[in-house]
Amino acid sequence: MAVSPSLKTPLTGSGLRRYLPFLNWLVHYRRADLPSDLVAGLVTAIMLIPQSMAYAQLAGLPPQIGLYASVAPLAVYALLGTSGQLSVGPVAITSLAVFAGVSAFAEPGSPRYLELVLLLAFIVGMVKLLLGVLRLGFLMNFVSHPVLAGFTSASALIIAAGQLKYLLGYRIEGERFHEVVLSAISGASQTNPATLAVGLGSMILLLLFRFRLKPFLQQRTRLPSAAVTLIVSGAPLLTVLLGILAAWLWRLNETAGVRVVGAIPQGFAPFTLPSLSIADAQALMPTALTIVFISVVESIAVARALASKRRKAIDPDQELVALGAANVTASITGGYPVTGGFARSVVNDQAGAVTGLASLVTAASIGVIVLWFTPLFYDLPQAVLAATVIVAVLSLFKPGEALRIWRMNRTDALTWGVTFVVVLLAGIEAGILTGVVFSLILFLWRTSRPHIAIVGRVGQSEHFRNVLRHRVQTCPHVVAVRVDESLYFANTRYLEDTLLRIVAGRPEVKHLVLIGSAINFIDASAMETLESLMHELRAAGVELHLADIKGPVMDQLQRAGFIAHLGAERVYLSAHQAMQALDCG
Amino acid sequence: MAVSPSLKTPLTGSGLRRYLPFLNWLVHYRRADLPSDLVAGLVTAIMLIPQSMAYAQLAGLPPQIGLYASVAPLAVYALLGTSGQLSVGPVAITSLAVFAGVSAFAEPGSPRYLELVLLLAFIVGMVKLLLGVLRLGFLMNFVSHPVLAGFTSASALIIAAGQLKYLLGYRIEGERFHEVVLSAISGASQTNPATLAVGLGSMILLLLFRFRLKPFLQQRTRLPSAAVTLIVSGAPLLTVLLGILAAWLWRLNETAGVRVVGAIPQGFAPFTLPSLSIADAQALMPTALTIVFISVVESIAVARALASKRRKAIDPDQELVALGAANVTASITGGYPVTGGFARSVVNDQAGAVTGLASLVTAASIGVIVLWFTPLFYDLPQAVLAATVIVAVLSLFKPGEALRIWRMNRTDALTWGVTFVVVLLAGIEAGILTGVVFSLILFLWRTSRPHIAIVGRVGQSEHFRNVLRHRVQTCPHVVAVRVDESLYFANTRYLEDTLLRIVAGRPEVKHLVLIGSAINFIDASAMETLESLMHELRAAGVELHLADIKGPVMDQLQRAGFIAHLGAERVYLSAHQAMQALDCG
């Protein structure tokens, strides 16, 4: 069940270095890496500044909370994480989960709301730490790809719909996707034209940068890749600055009713411990677990992909510890739940990040903004931030994914569909839970009806193949059956039923040979079934024989005493030997 | 994933006969079977009469409810079930579940309690019907053997402890096992000596019959097996009659405070429809699902074992329909939830039951008792019924089972322990739920860390084996890896991690050959991982190759477009061919 020791290459050192990975890169820091780490850190900061504020708005929080969440948590991850490229901070889907989860208990923007968000970040952090310390990271594997894909596409739609109120400038009610869309349509006549113009203008600018300028720079110019990344990643900041300029020049707030961000406090929030209330913690637990699931799955997938490009590997359990510590830090420094984001990590990587120093530079740069430059954002229209969010989540909406999954596996496509629909209609927590349970049941169903084939001898060879697919020879008194699955509690009764049916339908059969070439393990339930199957077959005048059993499975059967009950002489190395011994050669 | 059509031998006929299985045996009834069916039916009735009353008492119900549950439901199952031997009626563990579940909402013995029990039987029946009609019987496979074994042993202890109040004659409080035991100890001085004498006397008589008389009759006499069964199965009825005689002769009720059953109404309860209240149904749902799980698992296992002895097979989905109809019948005829019991079915089988006619005879016999002979049981001491229950559940308490499971599989033994302890300390519903979830997580954990071996060539042969277990030859620029598990969402990330680690630790490797001889299917998540793995390996300068992929898996890879992305030339029929092509021959 476990990997052989020799496969475990130590990657992050041993002892102290394993738990404090920065000792690996900080102590032996190579001067040559300094310029690229510096550039990457600055480029990522330029991208993160508007995005952090936009995602905070999406989470129902004032913009500075997004900035706070992008400083200390980022630095903590840089010191404890095993990826030099992963960039941690607020991301779209986590922000949506915060809003959906916490707005059920407090009014967004209220002090109570902020208090609950800080507690939520604390819980998220503690759960991640616990999973990491207990090495329970494998639990994250409950979220299958179709669930995550369906969830992400539906979340993108919900996020985009939620931004409509900032883009159109009137109040839109509702929590579920369809409620929001209906409310937006019914109020369309109240659209604020100036707000819409600012929002659409920002979107067009952002889209031009991404879809026109980027390919142009890449194909028509000889700019180095880091420079292209800098220009394209700078698009949101440029848009924000243009938006501020326009709002300030034409006093859009007073004259045209364009809502702006307003006063952002300068400097950091004081350190605070979250107010721990059991009742609050219980209420927030479903949201916290949802955030843990989706953020860990995303963070680790991104970190792994970027590390392996450099032929490095990450330590998933240490990643959990680092992400947990980052979230606890977010909680005590006035931030909100953070995740290793896909978009920003790719930017960090493309801009040349080699070690965690890049993230330290990013954190320091945003820290400078928080300390001295927040008044700059007073006139920033909320519609510009909404445009940033919508363009960012556009790439998350991938209905084509369902089609791709459909081609891979019909039932998995159903999982995508179920998750997608439940997220849209019932919310993200219900959706992800439904998806996870659905895919587990599907997996059990799949393995609970394994492929079972009656096999016969191919010509005069020693090969045995499915009687339905090949021209093979069989004997009336022996039936040889191959089971293409490990035997465990969910398929053991199906196996028993099928074998008994085979025997019940063939009164002339005296011997049943079970071929175990595809059986990787046998659990206690299956062992029990094999025992009773043997007795039931014997009572019906049929002897059970085993052939081609793998070494570890044979050990299990020995230990359980099954071989002694069966008779060691009924166990054969191969189907060929079994058939010869049973006069079916 | 599904069995080949040729394996599905029709067992219960087709069309109407499939859904009304009695058409198979009633229409073509063989005269020769009549005597054994008659004897078996009577023997089973003799055993069932005291047991039905005892289990009703265990369920917190008056004794006649147990008798009602043994008439109409039994007949309905006989007509709709596919087993001629399964005997349906009240059983110990279901009765315990009824008591534990319903006593939380109503005082046992009150009209409200009975009303809820009837509703419970109705829900249990409808859920079973639904599972059968939708062919969802495979869901029952969620309950693994260790969960069921741990649950059964703990339940036996709870049941025995619950009978102490009838055996000792004083009030014992508490629901959990430890509460009951503590309460029994603290009140020990109030023991009613006459009650205890009657109870212990009954237990000794019953134990003598089972452990002394049965082996004696079998070994020392030449009585036919059916006669032995009759004598031994008659033990409870004999004990009951002796108990009644003693209580009547010495007026134990009035003179010595021995509580007796009292007046039992003669005749059947009028047909009633359960009072359907959504709130009640919701409250009872956890209990109903628990009962469905445990009773279906027991019934189908017993039916299957007895059928296969006669080289017949049962249809599990039709069994669900029959059990569902029996429970709905119990609900409208004043009974309570019924199950195909192990003990009574074995008696029915040993006494010679061939078809459902035996159960019809049993039902009719008990019907006669209900109509005319209930006054006979007025003086029956409750302590005698308690003794019957305790002796019956003794055989369910099997701590040795944990040891056996331990020898089969360490982690499965942990499942047994967790289920056992949680059932004792927190109750049967919490216990079974914990066990099911625990064993699912365990299974996912097990398959989420599959055995992955680096393999090399054995001598000059075409065989490739684990480098750690065999002396084999490898090449520095090629690494061949065998994965002993199907690839699905829970192990796909572990696979990716392990392969990337292998490559990260071997900078000289240029080719990775993935050997798929033990891969039975690949789901969409794993497909996705293979894609990204291929790209990640390529980015690191390593080419991925596939060898020894099974036909159906190859079809999946083709359909998903993976083979086109990988390059068909990188897919080899065998590891040998792959290694030759990569200059590692």
Structural overview:
- Two copies of one chain form a homodimer.
- With 585 residues, the first copy, chain A, is mainly alpha-helical.
- Chain A has 26 helices and eight strands.
- Chain A has a six-stranded mixed beta sheet with strand order 4-3-5-6-7-8. In chain A, strands 1-2 form a two-stranded antiparallel sheet.
- In chain A, helix 22 links the parallel strand 5 and strand 6.
- In chain A, helix 5 runs antiparallel to helix 17 and helix 10 crosses helix 18.
- The N terminus of chain A is likely disordered.
- At the A-B interface, helix 14, helix 19, helix 21, strand 3 and helix 22 of A face helix 14, helix 19, helix 21, strand 3 and helix 22 of B.
Radius of gyration of chain A: 30 Å
- pLDDT below 50 for ≥5 consecutive residues: which ranges of chain A? 1-12
Rounded to the nearest angstrom, the distance between the terminal CA atoms of chain A is 36 Å
Query: Count the strands of chain A?
Result: 8
